[in-house]
Design brief:
With 229 residues, the chain is α/β, with parallel strands linked by helices. The protein has eleven helices and seven strands. Strands 2-1-3-6-7 form a five-stranded parallel beta sheet, with helices on both faces.
Length: 229
């Protein structure tokens, strides 16, 4: 009988794909993960266009996704992964507000959400929990979702204005806040201009904003607030 060889140990490592449009974030996260004896980063991508082929080429055990990607939104990528690679769990690591996005990413098919402000130890806890088949959220968010589930009243209450937006509407709102015009948004989201104009009209209606100027101001302030967290 022979003992376990280094090669065998390498094969047992869980393979992880990192999807983030910031090279420095990917580098730091890869260094953190590769220090673990049972984990290894085998691929990196800055967009959905790079991530999906990587998933086709290699059987991954976990995908870690940011919500802000080049050319698309992370939620759309999560939905694509859920359909095309249902056995591969997704963990979202993002700067965006967990209270607004955690439930959305879970509905899209992700298995967890952690913010980039968390300590590295918590990031590793989140990774291992999702790899073990569990769902990871912060204690505060877990409590909030449990309270929502146990409420006896129906979900017709007012909630937050942004919480009432669909995923696509929220994506348009974010792009408006980043300074993109209708044509740019249409190109980014691969939609026709009239569809984007419809989304903008819905945003004004749902957020009770009187005109385009107040919509842009509202979206810009929200994006700046997200970046400041």
């Amino acid at each position: 009988m022979t003992g376990k060889t280094p090669l065998t140990a390498e094969v047992t490592k869980k393979k992880i794909l990192l999807v983030d449009d910031h090279p420095m974030v990917r580098e730091c996260l890869a260094n953190l993960i590769n220090q673990q004896k049972d984990l290894v980063v085998v691929g990196e991508a800055e967009s959905a266009a790079q991530a999906l082929p990587a998933l086709e080429a290699t059987v991954m055990d976990l995908v870690i996704v940011d919500l802000s990607l080049k050319g698309s939104h992370g939620i759309e990528l999560i939905k694509d992964i859920a359909v095309r690679f249902p056995a591969v769990p997704v963990l979202v690591l993002s700067m965006h507000d967990e209270s607004l996005f955690a439930e959305r990413v879970l509905r899209a098919g992700a298995r967890g959400y952690i913010t980039k402000q968390e300590a590295t130890e918590k990031v590793m806890v989140a990774i291992r929990r999702v790899l073990n088949g569990e769902i990871y959220l912060s204690e505060q968010m877990s409590s909030k979702l449990l309270q929502k589930l146990t409420k006896t009243q129906t979900a017709t209450g007012p909630g937050t204005p942004l919480g009432a937006l669909s995923d696509r509407e929220l994506e348009v709102y974010e792009l408006i806040g980043q300074g993109q015009g209708t044509r740019q948004i249409a190109e980014t989201m691969k939609l026709d201009i009239k569809t984007v104009e419809t989304y903008r009209a819905r945003l004004k209606d749902k957020l009770r904003l009187k005109d385009t100027v107040t919509l842009i101001q509202s979206a810009t302030h929200w994006v700046q607030d997200q970046s400041a967290h």
